[in-house]
Request: fold
Amino acid sequence: MGLLEGKVAIITGSGGGIGREHALLFAREGAKVVVNDLGSDRHGGGKGAEMAEKVVAEIKAAGGDAVANYDSVATREGADGLVWSALNKFGKFDIVVNNAGILRDKTLLNMSEQDFDLVIDVHLRGTFLVTQAAGRVFKVQAKGGRIVNTTSLSGLLGNFGQGNYAAAKGGIYSLTRTAAMEFQRMGVTVNALAPVALTRMTQDLQMFKGMTAEQIGPQYIAPVAAFLASDLAAGITGEIVGVQGGKIFLYKMVETAGVTRDAPWQAAEIKERWGEISR
Ligand code: NAI
Reply:
């Protein structure tokens, strides 16, 4: 029996890249999959049905079950439509993977408001809208559930030229932590992946020069998503799981021991003790 037998999974942005790999693996593991993809280019321009339909055809050709959905996760209507298409086709869902994304890289001084807003809308607002729409259904279904979000190294540590993307992904980190707390009473776990994989989004990056899809492709990411989406991950929530090729690890927020006393500190004293504060 497959790891996800009997489950229904919504996977956003699964017409290509990492999401496609999630969809194919989830289906191989027995899940029925809603393959959502707007069909845009990597900067969020254009749209089309082809990307999602191709993945659905691949799943069906391999004997699985899937339905395509072309809604944008960045709008309320899109997020609701996505959730409804799962309920319409399969009558329920158990798993949501928030994976859709775009890039509009610019340094802060050169970034237009539109470049900032669009990236925030797809990543952060999209994750919020789909999580909220799905959470309301999970509450009514009363059978628990799994949400797997997608953050990034860039959002956790910052990255030159990605102020919009880093802010969006940092927001997804905080949203994941908060949703994990709020959804605990419903038996819904909420975790996030911080992947590194060679896809159309990252193919120009210097760090991938000379590397092949075999070495660092999305096939390394999907099994971690499948694990977090499965019954094996019961009790694991609020975690940020890094995956870089064959390496799997957790990101943790660090609080230093710092310095303490019962009275306010003076600026000059803070300067003096900075070594201890930052250690
Ligand atoms: P990708 O560009 O291949 O996949 C993103 C998919 O989302 C595309 O198929 C696109 O059509 C779809 N999409 C875009 N806007 C959408 C919208 N409004 N509604 C629905 N679908 C939409 O890129 P990749 O690399 O597979 O990225 C997947 C996720 O992983 C993204 O959230 C990305 O930010 C994240 N990520 C990827 C990293 C990598 O190294 N590839 C690193 C860190 C994070």
Q: What stands out?
A: The radius of gyration is 20 Å. The beta strands are 8-11, 32-36, 66-69, 95-97, 145-150, 188-196, 240-244, 247-251.
